[in-house]
């Protein structure tokens, strides 16, 4: 055990889980690569979701951050803040939400917490609909609505939550049904649930579940839900913390795969937009955002340094069409991984949208989740210089691939070749 790891374990909580038997200390990065404290270089196929949406050490972001830090860092929630107004304008316009208002936080958790605060205040209800297998953060209320029980350490909650089927396409009672029948069954289930309760305030859902293992519902599911929600006056909150900013390739936001539903009533974002700087936030129609009766601020939400990072990062993303890059390079990578999966035992499914790709593992010859296999593939890939993530329900048997959006075709090929070997050597 490294000295730093021993010190980590002695002073930090046990539930702050680290990847790898011998955890990594990452000291620097560039583009799609990071280096550890021993000087080993890794191709980073997971950092794009962790925070670094665009590229590590992107000069445009570094310059914007250092220039702003050189001017002032003071978090000026009580004064006008030019970078905050500018980034809010950009995000409001990109969100698709009419008459949009933006509130900045420092994390996805706090963004979802704020969305729950707004929804419950607006609808005068403390009941929430959330998806089974979902993840929405680690605050008391976000944990309370999180459906993935591996990430929900307490069953106590200030909110009453009802869980809805549909986020996971390939497991559960409706697995195997064609898309239209799957959607109809989930809608029926939702109607049945709502028949027995007072109307909840909102449905919160990740358009593609992130921590839950990059599970992709059929397109249009949330449009079908929306019809039912509208009948009951229930809001729809899209948690775009992982799916936003073009990550899914075809769409800028994950909700757009359900387009007929139109924009959600609220969307929450975080992670990538600051390219590593802590930015989260909520976008809501003015009528919802402005429903609070008293003041509410976030001291560090909208700090000018993080806003400068967000503005530079967003400009880079749009100028270089990284959404298009995610579609093209992600598409190639999905194809390549499907070809590899066909050659090895124990890959149940390769699924993905753009650069959000899941490889679900099962024990060879069975349909049983294979968490040990996923952990072994992570270790084997690391040995060869590739970092990937993992996720899924209780069983954490899905490899998660979410590189920075600037990934090149050559890097995609290199990573796929390493995964090919890693998948084989752990069988
Ligand atoms: N929502 C989703 C969909 C997430 O994936 C996460 C983080 N994994 C969060 C919310 C919480 O974000 P944060 O860790 O920034 O609080």
Write the layout of secondary structure elements.
Blueprint: H1 3-11, E1 26-30, E2 33-36, E3 41-44, H2 47-50, H3 59-71, H4 82-95, E4 100-105, H5 108-123, E5 127-131, H6 140-145, E6 160-164, H7 179-194, E7 202-205, H8 221-232, E8 235-239, E9 266-269, E10 280-285, H9 286-289, H10 304-319, H11 322-343, E11 347-353, E12 356-361, H12 371-383, E13 386-387, E14 389-391, E15 398-401, H13 409-425
Parallel strand pairs: 3-13, 5-6, 5-7, 7-8, 8-9
Antiparallel strand pairs: 1-2, 2-3, 4-10, 9-10, 11-12, 12-15, 14-15
Bound molecules: 4'-deoxy-4'-aminopyridoxal-5'-phosphate (PMP).
Subunit structure: Homotetramer.
InterPro entries: Aminotrans_3, PyrdxlP-dep_Trfase, PyrdxlP-dep_Trfase_major, PyrdxlP-dep_Trfase_small
EC number: 2.6.1.44
Q: Which features characterize this protein?
A:
16% strand, seven-stranded mixed sheet, alpha/beta, single chain, four-stranded mixed sheet
Describe the structure.
This is alanine--glyoxylate transaminase. Its EC number is 2.6.1.44. Its cofactor is pyridoxal 5'-phosphate. The chain has helices at 3-11, 47-50, 59-71, 82-95, 108-123, 140-145, 179-194, 221-232, 286-289, 304-319, 322-343, 371-383, 409-425, and strands at 26-30, 33-36, 41-44, 100-105, 127-131, 160-164, 202-205, 235-239, 266-269, 280-285, 347-353, 356-361, 386-387, 389-391, 398-401. By secondary structure, it is of the alpha/beta class. The radius of gyration is 21 Å and the shape is globular. 53% of the residues are buried. The model has no long low-confidence stretch (mean pLDDT 95). The site of 4'-deoxy-4'-aminopyridoxal-5'-phosphate (PMP) has 15 residues, from helix 5.
């Amino acid at each position: 055990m490294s000295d730093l790891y021993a010190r980590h374990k002695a002073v930090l909580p046990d539930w702050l889980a680290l990847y790898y038997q011998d955890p990594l200390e990452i000291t620097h990065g560039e583009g799609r690569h990071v280096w550890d404290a021993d000087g080993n270089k890794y191709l980073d196929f997971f950092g794009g979701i962790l925070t670094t949406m665009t590229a590590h050490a992107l000069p445009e972001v570094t310059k914007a951050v250092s220039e702003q830090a050189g001017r002032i860092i003071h978090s000026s929630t009580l004064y006008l803040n030019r970078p905050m107004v500018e980034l809010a304008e950009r995000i409001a316009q990109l969100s698709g939400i009419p008459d949009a208002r933006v509130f900045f936080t420092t994390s996805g958790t706090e963004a979802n917490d704020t969305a729950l605060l707004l929804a419950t205040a607006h609808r005068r209800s403390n009941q929430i609909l959330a998806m089974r297998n979902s993840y929405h953060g680690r605050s008391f209320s976000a944990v309370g609505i999180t459906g993935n029980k591996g990430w929900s350490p307490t069953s106590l909650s200030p909110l009453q939550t009802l869980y809805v089927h549909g986020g996971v396409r390939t497991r559960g009672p409706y697995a195997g049904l064609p898309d239209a029948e799957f959607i109809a069954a989930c809608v029926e289930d939702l109607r049945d649930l709502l028949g027995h309760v007072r109307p909840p305030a909102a449905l919160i859902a990740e358009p593609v579940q992130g921590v839950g293992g990059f599970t992709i519902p059929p397109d249009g599911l949330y449009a079908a839900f929306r019809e039912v929600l509208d009948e009951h006056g229930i809001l729809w909150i899209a948690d775009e913390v992982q799916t936003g900013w073009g990550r899914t390739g075809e769409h800028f936001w994950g909700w757009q795969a359900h387009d007929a539903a139109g924009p959600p009533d609220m969307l929450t974002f975080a992670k990538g937009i600051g390219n590593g700087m802590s930015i989260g936030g909520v976008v809501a129609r003015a009528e919802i955002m402005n429903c609070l009766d008293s003041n509410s601020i976030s001291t560090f939400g909208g700090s000018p340094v993080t806003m400068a990072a967000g503005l530079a990062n967003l400009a880079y993303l749009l100028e270089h069409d990284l959404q298009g890059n995610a579609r093209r390079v992600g598409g190639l990578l999905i194809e390549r991984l499907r070809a590899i999966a066909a050659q090895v035992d124990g890959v149940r499914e390769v699924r993905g949208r753009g650069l959000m790709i899941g490889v679900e593992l099962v024990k060879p010859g069975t349909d049983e989740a294979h968490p040990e296999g996923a952990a072994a593939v992570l270790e084997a890939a690391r040995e060869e210089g590739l970092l990937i993530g993992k996720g899924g329900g209780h069983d954490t048997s899905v490899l998660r691939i979410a590189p920075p959006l600037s990934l090149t075709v050559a890097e995609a090929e290199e990573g796929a070749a390493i995964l090919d070997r890693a998948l084989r050597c752990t069988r």
